[in-house]
Design goal:
Chains A, B: This is LacI family gluconate utilization system Gnt-I transcriptional repressor. Chains A, B: InterPro entries: Cro/C1-type_HTH, HTH_LacI, LacI/GalR-like_sensor, Lambda_DNA-bd_dom_sf, Peripla_BP_I. Chains A, B: GO terms for molecular function: DNA-binding transcription factor activity; transcription cis-regulatory region binding. 2 copies of one chain form a homodimer. By secondary structure, chain A is α/β, with parallel strands linked by helices. Chain A folds into 3 domains: 49 residues, 434 Repressor (Amino-terminal Domain), CATH 1.10.260.40; 132 residues, Response regulator (Rossmann fold); 129 residues, Response regulator (Rossmann fold), CATH 3.40.50.2300. In chain A, 45% of the residues lie in helices and 15% in strands. Chain A contains 13 helices and 12 strands. Chain A has a 6-stranded parallel sheet, sandwiched between helices. In chain A, α2 packs across α4. Chain A is elongated, with a radius of gyration of 27 Å. The structure holds a DNA duplex.
Chain lengths: 344, 344
DNA sequence: TTGAAAGCGCTAACAT
DNA sequence: ATGTTAGCGCTTTCAA
């Protein structure tokens, strides 16, 4: 007998994974019943349910969602592409979005595009390989192959942080052109005669900047000097920007519109280092209304975008489509708001 | 004929997904050959390879990794658990880690624990459901069920940001106790007679704080007042902390050790708002050496931890084990470094 | 170099 | 309330 066993189990030294079948045998039911106990417990009698739960506890069974996803064609995965995970503007959006979709049982597969369309396209290809149930994209500019892949996948897509009449599927955000114009109007209403732009290399930031400058030029400003950086915003770059504006572009006084609060904070610090008074000598307007904006010296005037709302709206747009609900509006504009504090 | 077709395809209105089989038929080969063309192109003749590639382009075939993962028992997925995605300390670690593992074809499934062990445990359960090939955890404190699940999964695990003699599998980080002591030594060497702590509610931060205070008390300091916050660090809380220290704890002068650069920055701002000179009245030491630390006013003295190195080491520890390489050391200490600038 | 067959662990019909 | 059967779209043997 013993010998027989030895012969039987040969090289069988790989630990068999615990599957539904394992649990089923222990509970004295069939494998499907275990599946039901997990997915539709009401359809299983209390007695069997208890036996199955016990068997699960005893075996330490962990459901295999990759098998489940293959069989059901639903992965319960949402792919999300953001430009940069270290940029709080995007990471906090992900935080809210993630929370909202998790409540419906979805997990997030997140990747960074580094603000590159090519990278984004490659990542979309990689991500679709996991058969996500939906996709979140940042911005409305995407390569054609990217759009095609997404369209071909036939899954809900939401583009965030911007609005367009022609989204891939749905989009939720606000108009960056309008934001730039609104800040220009604010600047004029407050009697500034000179203005400058400081901007990071974000396509949307550039559109705000351009709209801002255009509106001011049209209103009679002689020129709107600017300092633009490739890549991300930082306090260091904000300091550098003011230095350049003052030292190289002869910017003496006026208001500076920054494409992010981080840059604005840098401008504030550099102004202080140079003994420039804010807002008397240089006024500063940020963008984003990050948590620290209310606590700089002086408190920062900025443009608020409700990122929590953005995340929730993006999630509910996707969840609605995943639940087969008809969504009337393809485009949701959550707007923005100028928060006046003390720097302008 | 036409009629026949109609009858044949009944209700067949669901678009058949493009599978390897689809590609195979178009290329005139069997399905396995397509699989080989994708995974081991050298084992396929150039001619067939070309036909297959053409067929893939024509059909827009997107490989199904969920099927692949089920069959191969390798998901090419790494699960990562961090306390908070909006904390740059963790998000930048993820950025580096992600880059390193992506180079080997792995994707990241990331979730936030919100500094909670219970949440972490729940997330581990959820994540294991996706059958990741490896797991990254933040810190060395985990619930017992969490450890069990991970051990049971039989996959490589790396714990980051801390070191211990008894990791679940491997760990890479540095000693927070040693960091606290080192800062205390720095404080004494520089002749400070009074010190305080400002800390966020991070278990590791608390250990640094305690080691710092203990070392100073042992060295004869009368007391080390402290302000601790539950939850994350912020500039606002840094400002509030200095206010409390001065207004409520009669902290008149000395050095303040902050558990993060963000808190330190807040202290700096509040000091300025109160007309306190830095470092003459209050000296400040941060933690993390974030990019902005060199650009505050004055530039911030802080403790540098090489997060890029941490991410890379964590990745290579995991990748080595995934490749079946024997890893001699279970624990990697990447150390830290006090960066002296102008605030202390 | 290529193919046939057998699963991976689950869910989706369809019985009973 | 429970079970049977048939896949999901791949990879892994093993043959040819």
């Amino acid at each position: 007998m013993l010998k027989n066993q030895r012969v039987t189990d040969k090289e069988d030294r790989s630990p068999r994974p615990v599957t539904m079948e394992t649990v089923a045998r222990l509970a004295g039911v069939s494998q499907v019943t275990v599946s039901r106990a997990l997915n539709e417990p009401d359809k299983v009698s209390p007695a069997t349910l208890a036996r199955i739960r016990h068997a699960i506890a005893v075996t330490g069974y962990v459901p295999n969602l990759v098998a489940g996803a293959l069989a059901s064609k639903r992965s319960k995965l949402i792919a999300a592409l953001i430009p940069s995970i270290t940029n709080i503007v995007y990471s906090s959006l992900m935080q809210h979005f993630s929370q909202a979709v998790r409540a419906s049982g979805y997990q997030l597969l997140m990747s960074e595009t580094g603000f590159s369309q090519d990278e984004e396209q490659e990542l979309v290809a990689k991500l679709l390989t996991r058969r996500p149930d939906a996709v979140l994209l940042t911005g409305i500019r995407h390569s054609d192959p990217c759009r095609h892949m997404l369209l071909g996948a036939g899954i809900p897509v939401v583009e965030v942080w911007d609005v367009t009449e022609t989204p891939i599927d749905t989009c939720v955000g606000f108009s960056h052109t309008e934001a730039g114009k609104a800040v220009a109007a604010f600047v004029r209403e407050n009697g500034y005669r000179r203005a400058a732009n400081v901007s990071a290399g974000d396509e949307r930031a550039l559109r705000r900047k351009d709209a801002f400058a255009r509106a001011l030029i049209e209103a009679g400003f002689a020129s709107v000097p600017e300092v633009c950086f490739e890549g991300g915003a930082s306090i260091e770059r904000g300091r550098l920007a003011l230095a350049r504006l003052v030292d190289e572009q002869a910017f003496r006084d006026g208001v500076i519109f920054c494409s992010s609060d981080l840059l604005a904070h840098g401008v504030l610090i550099e102004a202080q280092a140079r003994g420039l008074r804010v807002p008397e000598d240089v006024a500063v307007i940020g963008f984003g209304d990050q948590v620290f904006a209310a606590h700089t010296l002086p408190p920062l005037t900025t443009v608020r975008v409700d990122r929590a709302l953005l995340g929730e709206r993006a999630a509910s747009a996707l969840l609605a489509r995943l639940n087969g609900v008809e969504v009337p509006e393809k485009t949701i504009d959550i707007g923005f708001e100028i928060v006046r504090r003390a720097t302008a």
